[in-house]
Write a structure and sequence with these properties.
Layout lengths: L2 E5 L3 H6 L9 E5 L4 E2 L14 E3 L1 E7 L15 E8 L2 E2 H9 L5 H5 L4 E2 L4 E2 L10 E6 L2 E7 L7 H11 L7 E3 L7 E2 L5 E6 L2 E7 L2
Parallel strand pairs: 1-12, 3-8
Antiparallel strand pairs: 1-2, 4-7, 4-13, 5-6, 5-12, 6-9, 10-11, 10-14, 14-15
This protein binds magnesium ion (MG).
The site of magnesium ion has 8 residues, from strand 1.
Length: 203
């Protein structure tokens, strides 16, 4: 399986990082070795002093497809989950300054904790899903899928023009405002609506 992710998909987060609003989605990848499941702890990497959390809604691909039309995109994912796109912000800043790829800043081991997935029929409206992240019991990020610049179906259509999607692939759909650093000993808890899906420690 592969992990695809979209950057800069919520205006408030683009503004907090002082990035430009992109005309087309910004896409990057994480390797399968980035995945943490079942609320395994995240081990802080030695190469960074500024690892940030970014909570994001996830799509689980259920069918192989390329060049998918937006109006058929819904047939290619069957479940929504919650994930954290851990980012070594100090390393990313150096790479961005040189115009180099973000791969190491975004794709290191454990940089993609993912929750269990909830079937689509549990969501009355995919364009109105609340999600949030708490750091040590305090709400730090709150988002709603209605605020995405590129909604789920548009992301599927765009990515599949370039990269074939396969069953089991996961798409990170971007983070709302409020990203910030973690430190050893912290606990992150993530919610979709009122359901707690993530609950793990930084070690
Ligand atoms: Mg992100």
């Amino acid at each position: 399986m592969k992990i695809l992710a979209i950057g800069r998909n919520y205006v408030a987060h683009i503004e907090e990082l002082k990035n430009e609003v992109p005309e087309e989605p910004v896409i990057f990848m994480k390797p399968d070795t980035a995945v943490l499941r079942n609320n395994e702890p995240f081990y802080y990497p030695e190469f960074s002093q500024d690892v940030h959390f970014e909570v994001e809604l996830l799509l689980r691909i259920s069918r192989e497809g390329k060049n998918i039309d937006t109006k058929f995109a819904r047939k290619y994912y069957d479940a929504i989950g919650l994930g954290v796109d851990f980012t070594a912000r100090d390393l990313q800043a150096k790479l961005k300054a040189k115009g180099l790829p973000w791969t190491l800043a975004k794709g290191f081991n454990g940089s993609a904790p993912v929750s269990e997935f909830l079937p689509l029929d549990q969501f009355p409206d995919l364009q109105n899903i609340d999600f949030s992240l708490q750091l040590n019991g305090e709400v730090r990020q709150k988002g709603n899928s209605s605020l995405m610049l590129h909604p789920f179906d548009a992301i599927i259509a765009y990515i599949s023009r370039f990269i074939t999607l396969k069953t089991g692939d996961i798409i990170f759909t971007g983070t709302p405002a409020g990203v910030g650093p973690v430190k050893i000993g912290d606990r992150l808890e993530g919610f979709i609506e009122d359901k707690k899906l993530l609950n793990f420690e930084i070690k």
